[in-house]
Specification:
The chain has 208 residues and is α+β, with helices and mostly antiparallel strands. Helices cover 39% and strands 27% of the residues.
Length: 208
């Protein structure tokens, strides 16, 4: 795929998946500038995880992971303080190839869009059913199960979208979420997600 040129928003322990919505409050000066520029361009940016040890270099250019989520600003509220509340829609996975010199306060990269594989394999519907069942079991243990949640899970259009939404909203471990973001094979991703949901369900039931 053709490389893309994007600003990056590095954040600790946050994984931005395709098929999801992410609300962010933008308060740092460099990222307020980034959002201002994005709004007059194509509204696209990437959210990328910071590698461990970032704290010492946070104000500069701490190391980030290579695979990130890219999306577009679909809603933006500018506050009287100059801060922003934004809503991002996840569109694709990308691999950062290199950072490029810039005179902006924020960082820019050249990245390659990553294509999913195996999205039409025959085993995916069964894996998606298992993911839904595990989610409902987890919600029941947490006392949050409802017919609305079941309908919401059933309404997700594809196994790939279901996997990304569940990984984003249910899996608490940042390293596990990052592994699911980096996995391009949809079937393997859903298998890994199912294993993570099984582990989470066991942890929750042991704690009761």
């Amino acid at each position: 795929m053709k490389p893309v040129y994007l600003p990056i928003f590095p954040l600790p322990d946050l994984t931005f998946f395709p098929h999801t919505l992410l609300r962010l409050h933008i308060f740092e000066a460099r990222y307020r500038a980034m959002i201002t520029d994005c709004l007059v361009r194509d509204r696209r940016l990437a959210v990328v995880g910071l590698r461990p040890g970032y704290e010492a270099a946070y104000a500069g250019k701490p190391p980030v992971y290579a695979v990130a989520g890219a999306g577009s600003i679909v809603r933006c509220e500018r506050l009287a303080t100059g801060r922003f509340n934004i809503l991002l829609k996840g569109e694709r996975r990308i691999r950062i190839e290199r950072e490029v010199p810039t005179d902006t306060l924020y960082r820019m990269v050249v990245a390659t869009p990553l294509a999913e594989v195996g999205a039409d394999r025959p085993g995916l519907p069964a894996l998606a059913r298992t993911v839904r069942e595990r989610c409902l079991q987890i919600l029941e243990v947490l006392g949050r199960s409802s017919s609305e949640m079941r309908e919401s899970l059933e309404a997700v259009g594809s196994p790939a979208a279901l996997g990304d939404q569940v990984a984003s909203g249910v899996i608490p471990d940042a390293a596990v979420r990052r592994g699911l973001l980096e996995e391009l094979d949809v079937e393997r991703r859903l298998e890994r997600l199912t294993a993570a949901l099984d582990d989470l369900l066991k942890q929750l039931t042991r704690g009761r």
